């Protein structure tokens, strides 16, 4: 039997929208019924969130260092090309 709070396969009750679902859950299971499954969801999300934020911070540092290295490598060539040439025509 596969059940969620929105649609229960074993029963005939189907909620039409979010407000209808909230009313039905509070009526049938009480206010705490709105939090059914929260613990399992948090346990499921924790490893994902830890990886996401950990990798983001780590890769952000790598990206910044790569940008600085690329900028430092480009500076001498830009400065050389921006140097004035001495091709003045004197009269």
Give your account of this protein's structure.
The longest helix has 45 residues, at 38-82. The chain has helices at 18-29, 38-82. The protein has two domains: 1-36, no CATH class; 40-78. Helices cover 63% and strands 0% of the residues. It contains two helices and no strands. The chain has 91 residues and is mostly helical.
List the SSEs and their pairings.
Layout: H1 18-29, H2 38-82
Structural class: mainly alpha
Written as H for each helix and E for each strand, in order along the chain, the element string is HH
Mean pLDDT: 79
Amino- and carboxy-terminal Cα gap? 97 Å
Residue share in β-strands: under 5%
What's the short story on this structure?
This protein is mainly alpha-helical and 91 residues long. The protein contains 2 helices and no strands. It folds into 2 domains: 1-36, no CATH class; 40-78.
Keywords:
single chain, 91 residues, mainly alpha, 2 domains, 2 helices, 63% helix, rod-shaped
